[in-house]
From TrEMBL, chain A:
Residues 1-24 form the signal peptide. The lineage of its organism: Bacteria, Bacillati, Bacillota, Bacilli, Bacillales. This is ABC transporter substrate-binding protein. SUPFAM superfamilies: Periplasmic binding protein-like II. It comes from the Bacteria. The keyword Cell division does not apply. InterPro entries: Bact_solute-bd_prot1, SBP. It holds the Pfam family SBP_bac_1. Keywords: Cell membrane, Lipoprotein, Membrane, Palmitate, Signal.
Automatic annotation (TrEMBL), chain B:
Belongs to the binding-protein-dependent transport system permease family. The keyword ATP-binding does not apply. GO terms for cellular component: plasma membrane. Gene3D superfamilies: MetI-like. It is found in: Cell membrane; Membrane. The chain crosses the membrane at residues 39-57, 103-124, 145-170, 190-214, 234-254, 293-314. It comes from Salipaludibacillus neizhouensis. CDD domains: TM_PBP2 (cd06261). This is Protein lplB.
Length: 520, 327
């Protein structure tokens, strides 16, 4: 074992030295980096020697969502293993078929020790969770200094029958807003919209008034994609005052599409679509295609996560250096109020299946590893990589090192899906804002917290929702798309709602209502 | 082949035996023939093992269609629920839609797609120049090696309303744009054209092989009688490959189950799900994405039974028309 470790360490030292040599060869102004590298090198070595090397490293098997096309290299994995005396066995699963793989692993009783899952999957797993298939971790949390820093409010959102089974990966409550082509708006002399009417006017002007001055009809307003949640629809429905998935009226829990505001939003999109102010094929458009349209100057408005402006701006300026972007969040509905939907404060949770552990001591060791990832040091290593090699400090925040972006993309970024907590609790660095529109987007994300609409069913239970939910959701999503495309009218839409009720929707409403009243 | 036949001949003299004795004689014969051809039988063994391990053992899992399967309890310890999952399937409004869609796509495969490789091979067979024939053959095989993702993506780029080439041309010719991707009317044509695009060339392989085995003398005789090219095709080539066509047709019917999950799944969207959702895609969403293993198994089981019935019907029909059938 030790020999393997040693050779690994040699390899790492070797690469670091080699890269410093290359950096040094690149020119004089890189000397600082080289020194930093050498220092990092030395400090790493000393740290390792202070770790108890006699202890057998714990092997931790885990699944992880892979958001990049390729699995990451071993650089960061080796670093983490060395630093925290663990052996990481990570199964990277492409995000697109993560649910399928997780279900397969569950069905074949081959779940690894650490299983991350998103909110929907978590709901589906409540049954085995109640059947005691996963470790309840609350009793252990206080043993770990850093894990006990996790935000109690968000932890409460992840409880099942009041018990805690998971660590969460934090996400800002609402990053939703609008990104638009500022240069186009300036050309046409349009102000940032603050009402849905002005928003429609902007989409119209971007389509009809030749915002890029090309003299031909080659632009549209909004670019949207098939996703009704993270695409434009749900955020726009918040503007109109639609509840977040479910609303409570007189103590009764009802789905969003039974609210007039939802219909108003559909009419709004329908108008935009039929006038050609948005991409005609949006129900079959992928996120890549949607963003491509925005980056290459085909469309001028993007509704979604405001933070996306950074990557959009980077890619767009490569094609067209003059492209300028702006962000805003505040759009009033017809009732004169601004609302924005919120997520429950976490993007995913991490569960620990009992079948993968021999005893609770093993669990303690895994939790100990996560405890270390919640230190500023551990979290920074996981999220940013190595200072001087992958990132550099800039004021309070950090920045990727441009020359090494390739390695950052391949070896560091995928590991973001292993993070737990959030900067506020782990104390890790945040991205320095070199791009002022991104800084604005971050500011607006915080501002959004004043206008949040929460999903009232986050902590409610419904057995029928687990059984029929996906199927019923699909039915309503399809009907929503068809309505907005003008393929069905309001009567047919309402008929689908009736069908939704009779196929299990009624039962879901009753169960949620019961669960809601029990909590009051 | 000749071994068992010889044995058989020796025993055809009219001897009166009781039923039991007859059975015994038969048994002895069988043992004898197995002993005689033991190497041939030995060669069968790997195939049998394969079928046993990969086709028969997994059937054990079918019992979860009658249980409330919970993975952590295991197959045996999960509770029996009888026909609950089947009842849920048959009572849901989805069922008839899915059933209808599956049969419609199957019908399209059978009526529209199936004859095309035959026609194509007849045409290829008429080509004189050898190098030309070869290159055409190779070219039409190629799409078979492209994945559905590629084929569907190409179609998407060509047919989209946002700058697709087809709608561009239509507009230039003065027709309004057609929403190919998101309409229930265009789903079937799109589906079958893509199937033809990918599989028609590949499907010619067996027919071409069958055609090349037709006795040349027949053609010569026909030509002497003054038969033209079309006559020869109709009266010699087609009848000669009839049994191959029938066998392939029955096999195709057995594939009613394999309409191509990947293909259909990629084509589905909110506006065409009503005509496009088939058993395979339904099993995927219900079973693997929602984790309802028992229910999905019940649906798959039902699909399997439908397939079995169709194959048996087709086989019987083939026999009635004097063909061999597959069993």
């Amino acid at each position: 074992m030790k020999r393997i470790k040693l050779s690994k360490r040699l390899a790492v030292v070797g690469t670091v030295t080699l890269s410093s040599m290359i950096l040094a060869a690149c020119g004089g102004n890189n000397e600082g980096n080289t020194e930093a590298n050498a220092n990092a090198d030395a400090s790493n070595n000393s740290e390792v020697s202070t770790e108890e090397l006699d202890d057998e490293p714990v092997t931790i098997e885990m699944m992880a969502n892979l958001h990049t096309p390729e699995t990451p290299g071993d650089f960061l994995k080796d670093k983490l293993e060395e630093k925290y005396n663990v052996e990481l066995d990570i199964q990277w699963v492409p995000d697109g078929n993560y649910e399928e793989r997780l279900n397969t692993a569950f069905a074949t009783d081959t779940l690894p020790m650490v299983v991350p899952m998103g909110f929907d999957m978590f709901n589906q797993f409540k049954d085995p969770i109640r059947a005691d298939q996963f470790w309840e971790i609350e009793p252990y949390l206080e043993e770990f200094e850093n894990l006990s820093k996790l935000n109690p409010e968000i932890l409460d959102n992840t409880r099942v029958d009041g018990k805690l089974y998971s660590l969460y990966q934090g996400r800002p409550l609402s990053r939703q807003g609008v990104i638009y082509r500022k240069d186009w708006a300036d050309n046409l002399g349009i102000e940032e919209p603050t009402t849905t009417e002005e928003f429609m006017e902007m989409a119209r002007a971007f389509t009809e008034d030749d915002p890029n001055g090309s003299g031909s009809d080659d632009t549209i307003g909004l670019t949207d994609r098939s996703d009704l949640v993270y695409g434009a629809f749900k955020t726009m429905s918040s503007w109109f005052g639609t509840p977040n998935n479910w609303g409570v009226v007189d103590g009764e829990v009802k789905p969003e599409f039974m609210f007039d505001e939802y219909i108003e939003t559909m009419d709004f999109v329908k108008e935009m679509h039929s006038n050609g102010y948005m991409n005609q094929d949006f129900p079959v458009t992928s996120k890549d295609d949607q963003q491509a349209m925005f980056k290459n100057g085909g469309a001028g408005i993007y509704v979604g996560s405001m933070g996306d402006v950074l990557s959009i701006h980077t890619d767009a300026t490569e094609l067209n250096p003059d492209a300028e972007y702006g962000v805003f969040n505040y759009v009033e509905g017809p009732d004169g109020e601004y609302n924005v939907w919120a997520i429950p404060g976490f993007g995913s949770v991490v569960l620990f299946p009992k079948s993968a552990y021999e005893d609770e001591n093993e669990l303690r060791k895994v939790l100990a590893f996560y405890d270390k990832l919640m230190t500023p040091e551990g979290a920074n290593l996981l999220v940013w990589g190595e200072e001087g090699r992958h990132y550099e400090m800039e004021g309070e925040g950090v920045n990727w090192i441009e020359d090494n972006l390739n390695e950052v993309d391949n070896d560091i970024r995928p590991f973001l899906s292993l993070e737990i907590g959030e900067p506020a609790t782990s104390g890790r660095y945040e991205m320095a804002s070199t791009y002022d529109v991104k800084a604005e987007a971050d500011k607006l994300t915080i501002e959004n917290e004043e206008y949040l609409v929460h999903d009232p069913t986050i902590t409610l239970d419904s057995e029928s929702h687990i059984t029929y939910g996906d199927r019923l959701d699909q039915m309503m999503n399809d009907a929503t798309h068809q309505y907005m495309l003008g393929q069905i009218d309001l009567d047919e839409f309402n008929a689908t709602v009736e069908e939704w009720k009779s196929e299990g929707g009624e039962a879901i409403m009753a169960e949620f209502t019961e669960s809601y009243q029990a909590q009051q | 082949m000749s071994g068992p036949n010889l044995n058989y001949n020796q025993n055809t003299e009219p001897v009166f035996l009781s039923k039991q004795e007859k059975r015994q004689v038969k048994k002895q014969e069988m043992i004898k023939s197995i002993k005689k051809n033991k190497l041939l039988y030995l060669m069968l063994v790997p195939g049998l093992i394969y079928f046993f391990i990969y086709k028969y053992i997994p059937m054990y899992g079918l019992i979860i269609a009658f249980k409330d399967y919970k993975p952590y309890l295991g197959i045996l310890a999960s509770d029996w629920v009888g026909l609950e999952h089947f009842i849920r399937l048959f009572q849901g409004t989805d069922f008839w839609i899915i059933f209808r869609n599956t049969l419609t796509l199957f019908g399209l495969q059978l009526v529209v797609f199936f004859p095309i490789p035959i026609i194509l091979s007849l045409m290829l067979n008429e080509i004189r120049s050898n190098w030309y024939k070869r290159s055409v053959q190779t070219l039409i095989y190629i799409p078979h090696f492209m994945s559905w993702v590629v084929i569907v993506s190409i179609s998407y780029v060509v047919l989209t309303l946002d700058g697709g080439i087809v709608n561009g041309l239509l507009e230039m010719m003065g027709f309004g744009p057609i929403n190919f991707l998101m309409s229930s009317e265009w789903f079937h044509p799109m589906y079958i054209i893509q199937v033809i695009w990918r599989e028609a060339g590949w499907g010619t392989i067996i027919f071409l092989a069958a055609i090349s085995a037709v006795n040349i003398e027949l053609y010569e005789a026909a030509r002497m009688d003054g038969a033209g090219r079309l006559r020869q095709m109709w009266h010699i080539t087609l009848p000669s490959i009839r049994s191959v066509i029938v066998v392939l047709l029955i096999l195709k019917i057995g594939d009613v189950l394999e309409l191509g999950f990947e293909h259909v799944y990629l084509l589905l969207n909110g506006s065409n799900r009503e005509v496009g959702e088939i058993f395979d895609t339904y099993v995927y969403t219900a079973g693997l994405k929602q984790g309802q293993f028992s229910y999905a198994t019940a649906v798959g089981f039902f699909k399997g039974i439908v397939g079995l019935i169709l194959v048996m019907l087709a086989n019987r029909l083939a026999k009635k028309f004097g063909e061999e059938g597959v069993y």
